[in-house]
Amino acid sequence: MRKIPLIVMSAVAGAALTLMATQPRLWLGSSAIAAAADTYRQLNLFGDIFERVRSHYVEKPDDSKLVESAINGMLSGLDPHSSYMDPKSFRDMQVQTRGEFGGLGIEVTMEDGLIKVVAPIDDTPAAKAGIRAGDIITHLDDEAVQGLTLNQAVEKMRGLVNTKINLKVMRKGAEKPLEIAIVRDVIRVRSVRSRAEGDDVGYIRITQFNEQTTDGLKKALSDISNQIGADKLKGYVLDLRNNPGGLLDQAISVSDAFLERGEIVSTRGRDPEETQRFNAKAGDLTKSKPIIILINGGSASASEIVAGALQDHKRATLIGTRSFGKGSVQTIIPLGSGNGALRLTTARYFTPSGKSIQAKGIVPDIEVLQDVPDEVKSRPTETKGESSLRGHLKADGEEGGGSQSYVPPEAKDDKALGAALDMLRGIQAKSSVTGQKTTVPN
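Structure (tokenized):
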């Protein structure tokens, strides 16, 4: 059975307790026997309720849906990131981690029973139709999303290419809900984009960590080096803002691209198999060029692994605002043919210095707050962070709140990018690089 470790952007198929009698006999203490008896009593209670619902509910229920709802209820009570994926959702997840899937092109989450847009994906039908981060989707083809799970809502938004779906959207500042029609298309997620900033700095943006991210990063580094020239290149800006995360192995390999040696991340769980350390291999693809990493309140999980690793090794300077604070690992466990998969939180992860960012986030070396235009102030420009999610895993010590997640659409208005470029070019009029947190005035 293949297990797929994820750090994710977001119901048990079954459980069995088998006691095997072998020699010598294992004698259970009275407390263990009492605990087992209580568990069986509660399972009997579930079975009793299940049968009563099947027999007496006003309409004949679908047995499989009853079981799936019970499973989802159990998992949602653990933490915000554990869930059951039915066969279709599992297939969709596999396609998405490969970097290609069908749909609208938006990152979404569930908030107060409604679907909230985290961010539209660049160059997709949703982005072209004008969907914005912070929009609340209330209806899909005139059907209310209230009462649907996140997976159910996502399934309704996906469909055949060239078919249309109508969204009803609430937007802060708008007098009435907006009606937005979107034609579905094949969504090919280009997770890495790059360009030259002037004739001396390379800019690389990673939007998520899928199976193509490391290859995309290597190509970006090569393209920039060839375009600018190794002798003129002063360094790179790695933009991880509003990157919700993705695959653990990609976060590790992206970090490795900038490191010669040392630990990248460690994971610790109840199962010894989930307790691991991952180390860099020799070979810094940038040839030790300076690195500035941009983060904000939307930088989560895999993004935080990369930022934390390079910050701890003093390989990069972090600029922006506090990251989201998702410090847990989810493992995708297939449940057999036709049964979907279990997305289960199995470990916490730690930066090379041993810090957990769970519900705390990563604090940048230099804090830069963006100027928010008046026309944008009507919609949310901050994230609440992991610590605001109901049922989240608690932090060791004081938890951190969310932070600003607004990124100006024009590079000329981007204060964090401007500070990064100034730093790489040796211009320190706004702030100095000392390794200590400073604030760039608005």
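The two ends are 53 Å apart (CA to CA). The CA atoms of residues 209 and 246 lie 4 Å apart.
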